[in-house]
Amino acid sequence: MMNQITSLLLACSTLAILTFGVGIRMFVIRIREMKKEHIRPQSIALSSSRAKRLQDSRVSDNYNHLFELPVLFYTLCALAIASQHIPGWLPVSAWVFVILRIIHSLIQCSYNKVMHRFLVFLMGFILLGLMWIAFTISYNLVQ
Questions:
Q1: pLDDT tens-digit profile of 62-90?
Q2: 8 Å CB contact between 66 and 105
Q3: Is 112 helix (H, G, I), strand (E, B) or coil?
Q4: DSSP for 26-92?
Q5: Is 2 in a helix, a strand, or coil?
């Protein structure tokens, strides 16, 4: 049985690996499309230019999303480990959050049904908000 720190570190590592995987997929798709359409790199230097020239932004959009809400997740896990305050529910909640992010990425990088993606995002958003609230309360109770 793994300890709580190891569980949090593995959850964070899994999310980081997902981010790298989506990033690699983004590079492959983008380079393939740029070669096929003869798009010069400098012509898409700005996001507005990329939106006009590149057809499929699902994977690059998801890559960007992996640097939004997950930043608060990584911060919470780091604070929990640094403060040596890891309530029993935190590793379990962390893994649920990671699983929701994986599902979100799978939806967005494939069929991209907005309401499916939004529902999964909302569940992760609410879960992470509750994790922060519960962590803050539990930390203050032990101080």
A1: 999 999 999 999 999 999 999 999 999 99
A2: yes
A3: coil
A4: HHHHHHHHHHHHT--GGGG-SHHHHHHH-S--HHHHHHHHTTSHHHHHHHHHHHHHHHT---THHHH
A5: coil
Instruction: Dump pLDDT digits (tens) for 98-121.
Output: 999 999 999 999 999 999 999 999
Residues 6+ away with beta carbon under 8 Å from 11: 77, 91, 94, 95, 97, 98
How big is the CA angle at 138 (ends 103 and 100), to the nearest 5 degrees? 0
C-alpha torsion sign, points 72, 61, 124, 86: negative
What does the mean pLDDT of the chain come to? 95
Its pTM stands at 0.93
Structure tokens at 112: 């991209």
b/e per residue, 65-74, with b = 16+ CB within 10 A?
Answer: bbeebbeebe
**What is the reported pLDDT for 1?**
61
Contact 78, 126 (CB under 8 A): no
Which residues lie below 8 Å from residue 4, measured CB to CB, with a gap of 6+?
86, 88, 90, 91
Confidence of residue 10 (pLDDT cuts 50, 70, 90): very high
